[in-house]
């Protein structure tokens, strides 16, 4: 349409967009149309008993007809809640973290909450800054997976005034609320499984950073050996960094021993991937010559060749439990201080009975 006075094209008319859709109506607009004050509109939209029923109904009808929608920020100013959760993971590329995140997001969404996701890159200082930034953005609660800060949050709680729940805290201590897998029990079950298959030369491929999960899994491995009367050999304890590449190098060291192990318990499934690749490159077979056990039961565990025996963490359930615990903290209800989730051994085809002649030297 052309304006007769100026000769210019009316952009709103040309695009078919009305002025109303170009700008969302505000409370001021509703107040002007209803001929009432701004506070009266605000109270009516919150169903306050302070507003006459007929007046409140008229205000709500006008708001609906004009397309008014209350913003989350505006609601937060009134309710002191933003209905948002801050979630910190070590890396978004971690398959474990992605499953936990799914459990958290689904539970949050079911309760009308949105989740802000941040990556700490496994850096304690970055993790601390991200958590503080979330607190400054007035999120209602924070969840941290595989925390590298852990108990150090305790002195920050009174300062931040934001409930925090940790999932698989790597440095547990005096911190109050967390969801943890039964690391020791799960690793002990894995090593016991190998003992029952006749293995006595069982190695442990751990994590070099000294995280609590590795300490507990190593303890479970040692406990299974002790109960079976199998002596621990220090050369059978090697370390990677939780990723396949470093696990390959660690497994290379085990296979270079004069009398190598016939089985290996790995810190996690990613380490098991590297261990299995090293074994193959040495011309050996899994499980015929060396049995391998992982920990986590990540999505690929049943698709490896052979399928990986591993300890299952119910990752989505752990995310749900963390979110449920956080809801209780946010509402002032009593909540379990430390939720311990049971680990489950999943036996697949990467473990078998020990060969009578041990491990032959490979071709690498």
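Sequence proposed for the structure above (364 residues):
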């Amino acid at each position: 349409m052309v304006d007769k006075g100026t000769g210019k094209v009316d952009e709103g008319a040309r695009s078919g967009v009305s002025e109303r859709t170009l700008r969302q109506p505000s409370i001021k607009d509703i107040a002007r149309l209803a001929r009432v004050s701004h506070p009266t509109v605000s109270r009516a939209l919150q169903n306050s008993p302070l507003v006459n029923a007929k007046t409140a109904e008229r205000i709500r009808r006008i708001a609906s007809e004009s397309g008014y929608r209350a913003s989350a920020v505006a609601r937060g100013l009134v309710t002191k809640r933003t209905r948002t959760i801050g979630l910190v993971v070590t890396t978004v590329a971690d398959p474990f973290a992605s499953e936990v995140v799914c459990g958290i997001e689904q539970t949050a969404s079911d309760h009308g909450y949105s989740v802000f996701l941040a990556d700490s890159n496994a850096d304690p200082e970055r993790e601390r800054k991200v958590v503080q930034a979330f607190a400054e953005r007035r999120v209602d609660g924070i969840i941290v997976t595989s925390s590298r800060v852990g108990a150090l949050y305790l002195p920050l709680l009174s300062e931040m005034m934001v409930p925090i729940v940790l999932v698989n805290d790597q440095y547990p201590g005096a911190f109050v609320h967390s969801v943890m897998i039964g690391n020791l029990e799960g690793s002990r079950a894995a090593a016991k499984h190998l003992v029952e298959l006749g293995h006595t030369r069982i190695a442990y491929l751990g994590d070099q950073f000294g995280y609590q999960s590795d300490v507990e899994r190593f303890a479970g491995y040692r406990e299974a050996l002790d109960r079976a009367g199998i002596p621990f050999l220090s050369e059978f304890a090697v370390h990677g960094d939780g990723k396949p590449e470093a696990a390959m190098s660690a497994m290379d060291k085990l296979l270079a021993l004069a009398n190598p192990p016939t089985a290996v318990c790995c810190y996690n499934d990613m380490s098991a991937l590297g261990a299995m690749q090293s074994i193959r490159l040495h011309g050996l077979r899994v499980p015929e010559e060396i049995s391998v056990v992982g920990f986590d039961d990540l999505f690929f565990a049943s698709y490896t060749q052979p399928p990986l025996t591993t300890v299952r963490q119910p990752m989505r359930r752990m995310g749900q439990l963390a979110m449920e615990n956080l809801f209780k903290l946010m509402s002032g209800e009593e909540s379990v201080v430390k939720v311990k989730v049971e680990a489950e051994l999943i036996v697949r085809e990467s473990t078998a009975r020990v060969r009578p002649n041990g491990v032959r030297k490979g071709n690498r």
